[in-house]
Amino acid sequence: MMNSQKYNDRIVKGFLISALVWGVASMLIGTWIAFQMVFPELNFGPYFTFGRLRPLHTNAAIFGFALSIIFATAYHTVQRLCRVRIWSDRLANIHFVLYNLTIVLAAITLPLGMNQSKEYAELEWPLDLLIVVWFVIFLVNYFGTIFTREEKQLYAAIWFYIASFVTIPILFIVNNLAVPVGLTKSYSLFAGVYDANIQWWYGHNAVAFVLTTPFLGLMYYYLPKHIKQPIYSHRLSIIHFWSLIFIYIWAGPHHLLYSPLPDWLQTTGMVFSIMLWMPSWGGMLNGFLTLTQAKEKIKTDATLKMLLVGITFYGMSTFEGPLLSIRSVSALGHNTDWIIGHVHGGTLGWVGMMSFAVIYYLVPRVWNTNLYSERLANFHFWVATLGILLYIVSMWVSGVTEGSMWRAVDETGALKYPNWVQITEVLKPFRLFRGIAGILYVTGLFVMIYNVIKTIATAGSGWKEIDLRVGLKEGKA
Amino acid sequence: MNWFDKLLDWFSGYTDKWETNGVKFTIYTTIAVLCGGIFELIPPFFLSKTAEPIANVKPYTALEIAGRDVYQREGCNNCHTQVIRPFKWEVDRFDPQKSFGRDGYSKAGEFVYDHPFLWGSKRTGPDLAHESQIQASAEWHKTHLINPRDTAQGSVMPAYPWLFEESAKLDPSKIAAHMRGLRSVGVPYTDAEIEAGAAELAGKTEGDALIAYLLKLGRDSAELAKSLK
């Protein structure tokens, strides 16, 4: 392909492969710890207990899998949207090596118990410093590409990537400020309520600027590209982009409702969370309305199905989020499995499905061949969708049951279920279903990896584009 | 919807220009993102009322700090919260002896020495904010940590027998550095307390330290509440 000379696709390939590696790692560990919640015998101490593996699961999923997809698509889209090669191939390679080194070190240090106890920011300070180094290298390269671009207009997809890449370092650095007391131990600069406030400002916006905005960016690029139709509304993208990035950052305190956090902050968090529903659905609708332009192809195209389900789960999760941030709903749902279900609706449904769609889109193109099997991709779609549904439904039931049993009182006003384990026993079957859901989802992932390996084996054999525009015959460019 | 269209026209008039200027676009994006952060992170620092230390609440001793380090290392905060919400059902459950009077929920002033905070976000096991008032027996905690099923049949908590083995003896040489680090972020340890730290740890296991930490949780504010009664 002539593109291969103009653009650096090697770096895209590298991050696609690391996405598959860290994806399998994170989801296998996720499934394992799901079963630990039912069978405590599966805790192998001291290195493989739930408390040490859970941070490994979240870090591998967010920073191993999702971030690999983000970097793969960022490098792929920025070169096309700016019509120039990435500013520096060497910086891209350094970024790739240091990034993967960080995740490897994370996978070693977290089971060793080196953990600063802030959710999604567990890595200790030497690794934090390493992350800052390669992120700066990446930023220089990314903005270097944008500033040397040959295309004047910055397309919507690139807005979302820019917003993500300027915000992630701000959040990361502030929340990780700590005083080292040894190579593997540090204490947060902040204490108690302040620390909680900063942690959830970070934690919520990790959801916003790692798991949401970059994936909206890739939706804005790959969805129209895949169906060869323009995005439904440019004006809708303008309004929903600016309102989304402005409002999202305020929503953190909804994680701390009814805590000793000042009431005005809790209320601010709740109000902005509810407001967030509008820009989120703006993005969802723009995706949906774009997709309807090719709706006849949904039955036959696995990638399109994945985009459809991904966007659906985006809409669902961003409806559930504001709902859960309402005080009275939070009173029932907070600290329960419902929240776990909510998170996984977003991660397995939105992030996972969009990532899989992008992998099926990119692998044949960057390796210049055709996908080994559309049928296997279709099987992956169904088994993953089934897994997500089983996961969130079992967690909904479990969470609402849990919250209700905690608060249940008898006619004298005494607790109906004072014995904690009595409640745990009731939840066990639902938690078992969650583990089975995990197995389904991981099965889909293995099928995809097989498909990708078989596809790469025929690399260079020439890639033939299928045109999804309605009314055109397949294969006609 | 005419006014909305006009608003959109006006707004996209600006954004269209930004979209052709990478520097401008990046700066305006950063400003949009910083607004919420500045509003939420700066004012609480200057409002002393948000975290007035409660009179009786004292910093953790050397052994309790060592125990807190173990608590963090084992990721106990993944399954246990340390914050009790102001609901009857939570106060009844986590303050059964009414040790904290009528208001047995968590107050900001109880956490002023917590670097980092360990409130957690998931309650797979019970809340531990007032654990010293719920289960005061060190022997019970030891049995529970060695095998949770021995004290609570059906518990899904991992077993931590190695915390009490010979290999889990604490290293007293490090604790002074830990306490000095905490002092540098605002915990008022005296030089004498820091020097005495190593002796407090001598001969103790990580399990002993963890139990000392668990028996510190909620103790100071409960004593204050009792003295007021």
From TrEMBL, chain A:
<feature type="transmembrane region" description="Helical">
    <location>
        <begin position="55"/>
        <end position="75"/>
    </location>
</feature>
<feature type="transmembrane region" description="Helical">
    <location>
        <begin position="125"/>
        <end position="144"/>
    </location>
</feature>
<dbReference type="InterPro" id="IPR036927">
    <property type="entry name" value="Cyt_c_oxase-like_su1_sf"/>
</dbReference>
<feature type="binding site" description="axial binding residue">
    <location>
        <position position="344"/>
    </location>
    <ligand>
        <name>heme b 1; low-spin</name>
    </ligand>
</feature>
<feature type="transmembrane region" description="Helical">
    <location>
        <begin position="156"/>
        <end position="179"/>
    </location>
</feature>
<dbReference type="GO" id="GO:0046872">
    <property type="term" value="F:metal ion binding"/>
</dbReference>
<keyword id="KW-0813">Transport</keyword>
<dbReference type="GO" id="GO:0016491">
    <property type="term" value="F:oxidoreductase activity"/>
</dbReference>
<dbReference type="GO" id="GO:0020037">
    <property type="term" value="F:heme binding"/>
</dbReference>
<feature type="binding site">
    <location>
        <position position="255"/>
    </location>
    <ligand>
        <name>Cu cation</name>
    </ligand>
</feature>
<protein>
    <recommendedName>
        <fullName>cytochrome-c oxidase</fullName>
        <ecNumber>7.1.1.9</ecNumber>
    </recommendedName>
</protein>
<dbReference type="Pfam" id="PF00115">
    <property type="entry name" value="COX1"/>
</dbReference>
<feature type="binding site" description="axial binding residue">
    <location>
        <position position="57"/>
    </location>
    <ligand>
        <name>heme b 1; low-spin</name>
    </ligand>
</feature>
<keyword id="KW-1278">Translocase</keyword>
<keyword id="KW-1003">Cell membrane</keyword>
<feature type="transmembrane region" description="Helical">
    <location>
        <begin position="339"/>
        <end position="363"/>
    </location>
</feature>
<dbReference type="GO" id="GO:0009060">
    <property type="term" value="P:aerobic respiration"/>
</dbReference>
<dbReference type="InterPro" id="IPR000883">
    <property type="entry name" value="Cyt_C_Oxase_1"/>
</dbReference>
<feature type="binding site">
    <location>
        <position position="254"/>
    </location>
    <ligand>
        <name>Cu cation</name>
    </ligand>
</feature>
<feature type="transmembrane region" description="Helical">
    <location>
        <begin position="12"/>
        <end position="35"/>
    </location>
</feature>
<feature type="transmembrane region" description="Helical">
    <location>
        <begin position="375"/>
        <end position="397"/>
    </location>
</feature>
<feature type="binding site" description="axial binding residue">
    <location>
        <position position="342"/>
    </location>
    <ligand>
        <name>heme b 2; high-spin</name>
    </ligand>
</feature>
TrEMBL record, chain B:
<dbReference type="InterPro" id="IPR009056">
    <property type="entry name" value="Cyt_c-like_dom"/>
</dbReference>
<dbReference type="GO" id="GO:0020037">
    <property type="term" value="F:heme binding"/>
</dbReference>
<dbReference type="GO" id="GO:0009055">
    <property type="term" value="F:electron transfer activity"/>
</dbReference>
<feature type="domain" description="Cytochrome c">
    <location>
        <begin position="62"/>
        <end position="218"/>
    </location>
</feature>
<keyword id="KW-0479">Metal-binding</keyword>
<dbReference type="InterPro" id="IPR003468">
    <property type="entry name" value="Cyt_c_oxidase_monohaem-su/FixO"/>
</dbReference>
<keyword id="KW-1133">Transmembrane helix</keyword>
<keyword id="KW-0408">Iron</keyword>
<feature type="transmembrane region" description="Helical">
    <location>
        <begin position="25"/>
        <end position="47"/>
    </location>
</feature>
<keyword id="KW-0349">Heme</keyword>
<dbReference type="GO" id="GO:0046872">
    <property type="term" value="F:metal ion binding"/>
</dbReference>
<keyword id="KW-0812">Transmembrane</keyword>
<dbReference type="Pfam" id="PF02433">
    <property type="entry name" value="FixO"/>
</dbReference>
<keyword id="KW-0472">Membrane</keyword>
<protein>
    <submittedName>
        <fullName>Cbb3-type cytochrome c oxidase subunit II</fullName>
    </submittedName>
</protein>
<dbReference type="InterPro" id="IPR036909">
    <property type="entry name" value="Cyt_c-like_dom_sf"/>
</dbReference>
